[in-house]
Amino acid sequence: MTQDSPSPAPTSSRGVDPDARPTTRAVHVGLAPDPTTGAVAPSISLSTTFERTSEGALRGAFGYGRDGHPNRLALEQAVASLEGGEVAACFASGLAAIDAVLRALPAGARVVAPSDVYHGTRQLLVEHHPSLETTFVDQTDLAALRAALAGGAELLMIETPSNPALDVTDILLAVGLAHAAGALCAVDNTWMTPIFQRPIELGADLVIHSSTKYFGGHSDVSGGAVVAAREDEMFARIRAVQTHAGASAAPFDCWLIRRGLQTLDCRLRAQTQTAGEIARHFHGHPRLEAVLYPGLEDHPGHHTSIRQASGFGAMLSLCVRGDRAETTAVAGRCRLFTRATSLGGVESLIEQRVLVEGDDSPTPPNLLRLSIGLEHVDDLVGDLERALGG
Ligand code: PLP
Question: Which residue out of 190, 197, 341 has the highest number of ligand 1 atoms within 8 Å of its CB and is therefore the one to mutate?
């Protein structure tokens, strides 16, 4: 916080019991009917500055928009509540949120990240944080993870299920290894969301989101969030990056994402139901080498997934029996799946990840990542069958 603007006092949400279920908290936390007009839906507060009293004191919780504004506060309260953290900071994108965590580390800090981490996170670590000493490791291999942490570390980053290989890391065990090595543990929970997986309950210190995905839910807003288990020194540094470096989230973006949270539970459950049916339908398909989805019983992370999450999520990958060009052709024949990057929206997307990640990508060239939306399962299956049929 700058001198100009104190830490905003939390506003209370009317009628929400703190023990209410996540579905209920997603609808209400941080929101209340407008005390002046009675408006039920929140207003968008575009003001970048807030009036002071004649004595020069702030009249309310806000002083300057970069430091905080009503829509960001409402969103931060909701996200913190859903993840079971004490506090959250919302950013202009998921990568801005991850960058804030990395900048909050001491110079020369040792970071351990998944070998198939989201490629933007890898780029951020390698190209923009050369002072950090980063080790990439297959986190499904606990012996390898233990070895990577052996010399001590400041941060273990986890992404589970991973993007786009759908590998599952055992959060509880990984957190234990991180803490034993003196490291904080941050989990990117973008794919599962707190509806299915709450890493803070499993001991994680920080949870990260690309709110661009399921939180927003409609492919029309970018955002990111960091939730902290405790409002401590580390979180104060993350908050300082958000406010001092200007990585804060804008009012309309926060409003859209806060609205998206209200339908997150039912969207994600419906999308996950369809993803499971698609995975089972194509499992063993003659035109596919593999279907990567933790909900399949023969997926190596199936049982870990059941232990640590209440759903398998709406992302899956298909490995085509064929080379890079044949895989491009399969995606090219889709009519209902849109060929586009990103995920978590109401429309289904298909992407040959290697085309986005570049030639040094560890992702197999025959892998197609699917983000399952809200269309009818039979139409999606039909589209993929036609595309695979050639
Ligand atoms: N984390 C994960 C798991 C992602 O899939 C993405 C983007 O695809 C990000 C972070 C980055 O989020 P953003 O695009 O909002 O910066």
Answer: 190
Distance in angstroms (rounded) separating the CA atoms of residues 232 and 252:
29
Residue-wise pLDDT tens digits, 141-171:
999 999 999 999 999 999 999 999 999 999 9
The model's pLDDT over 308-343, given as tens digits with 9 standing for 90+, comes to: 999 999 999 999 999 999 999 999 999 999 999 999
HSE value, Cβ hemisphere, 13 Å, CA-based, for 232: 9
Ligand 1 closest atom vs CA 224: 15
Euclidean distance between CA atoms 374 and 314, whole angstroms: 10
Neighbours of 52 (CB within 10 A): 13
Question: Which residue owns the Cα nearest ligand 1 atom 5?
Answer: 118
b/e code 152-175 from CB counts within 10 Å (16+ = b): ebbbbbbbbbbbbbbbbbbbebbb
Relative to beta strand 315-320, strand 367-371 is antiparallel
Please name the amino acid found at residue 388: L
Decide: helix, strand or coil at residue 88: strand
Sign of CA dihedral 263, 268, 273, 277: positive
Please count the helices (runs of H) and the strands (runs of E) in the chain: 13, 12
Which is the closest atom of ligand 1 to the Cα of 98?
Answer: 10
Please classify residue 242 by burial: count the beta carbons closer than 10 Å to its beta carbon, then call 0-12 exposed, 13-18 middle and 19+ buried: buried
